[in-house]
UniProtKB/TrEMBL annotation:
Residues 317-461 form the O-acyltransferase WSD1 C-terminal domain. Pathway: Glycerolipid metabolism; triacylglycerol biosynthesis; Lipid metabolism. This is Uncharacterized protein. The chain crosses the membrane at residues 189-207, 317-340, 352-371. GO terms for biological process: triglyceride biosynthetic process. SUPFAM superfamilies: CoA-dependent acyltransferases (SSF52777). In the N-terminal section; belongs to the long-chain O-acyltransferase family. GO terms for molecular function: diacylglycerol O-acyltransferase activity; long-chain-alcohol O-fatty-acyltransferase activity. It comes from Eutrema salsugineum (Saltwater cress). Residues 59-248 form the O-acyltransferase WSD1-like N-terminal domain. It is found in: Cell membrane; Endoplasmic reticulum membrane.
Amino acid sequence: MWKEEEEEEPLSPMARVFQSPGIDNCIVITIGFKAKINVEVILDDLKHNVSKHPRFSSKLSDNGARWIKTKVNVEDHVFAPNVDLEEIGEDGDDFVDDYISRLTVVPLDRSRPLWDIHILNVKTSDAEAVTVIRSHHSLGDGMSLMSLLLASTRKTSNLEEFPTMTTSSKRRKMVFHGLILTIFYASKMIWNTIADFFLLFVTILFLKDTETPLKGGVSIQKRFSHRIISLDDLKLIKNAMDMTINDVLLGVTQAALSGYLNRLYGKQNVENGASTSNRNNLPSKLRFRAGVAVNLRPNIGFKPMADMMAKGSKCRWGNYISFIVFPMSIGLETDALVYISKAKSTMDRKKHSFHSALVYIVTGFVFKTFGAKVGAALFKRPVLHTTASISNIVGPMEEISFHGYPIAYIAPSSYGHSQPLVIHFLSYAKKMVISIGVDPTVIPDPHKLFDEMEESLQAMKASLGLLDDVSH
């Protein structure tokens, strides 16, 4: 016989943060399929496998501090609404966006495991059907959930083979030659860490971002959209400038936000009757910061699920993430490549700091010493005082299928925090999927932000003379 409450396990510090009062952070993964989905296939798979995973077969204790093993009735977690396809017509994208948006105001039932799956056999511009996986962030971070997805799928080119894992390489460690260099790099790390922690401290206390048209918002309901661009285009720029894909993405984001904000300020000037002869409508000394997620696992890349679930694993399942406060360079540049150079310069300095690791340690200390209420209040302050959140995940290297259903795209996002703008990047085969979550009262037109990203990417290719190497 199955015992209703078989065992208990404490939540990690970050897991407690994500389910603390006033935060309640959830991950939403939208998966587009190239064929209509048989709901029974999903149910059958879950019935055979969900009990094998401790997080997806556990519920929270009443005080939110421990996981309690419980029996899972998968029918309570899978939803396949009947939809009138004739009524939807060509508006499949809006129907899916509206459906997911409504989920953000419907809390997960805490009397059972904190996840659900929604199957929408609706044709969109990028897929024949869409599945929405919603899970509470306390169950695991994006790296954990992506590893679970990879373990549940197979290569489309060979349905007997598991997807190829991204190359697992240890984080680069500095090799010092001589006492002087050792002292120099150690001093630099310590100084950068002190500076970063001081800036975080004043951000928690009082330092807020500039009140731009993208700051603020009152809506609890969020709205998600995605766009697919060419990963090969990003690699062309990366290789030409000898940078990382992450540097290029941050540069594209800075360029897009600069153009988007400039347009909004120009519109305000018109409405206020001010002169609009100047091309640059941005205010000077604009402070715009984003919380950039950092994976704290010592190995980069995905690991098999068995390795992640093993006790003592260095790449274990859970919320082993932190963040850095990244100052975005907002301004109009004559050369689009300047945005990438500035992003790389800032990120390189952030990498030479123990800030993200110490944030994770301090968060755990505060929760253990002062309790969940104080810990949550401390965590919320930098979120309230910054404007955006950015995350980048390396996805499957080739096209994958779930029980024979080929996957067209994977678009992750999250909600439950006060920032009006959340940007997620995920690579999939030869695609880069950009997913944007917005407060619709602040950003009613996220597709215009996508347009700015694509235009910025083309401007960067033009500056490098790469427009002939179009890979679309």
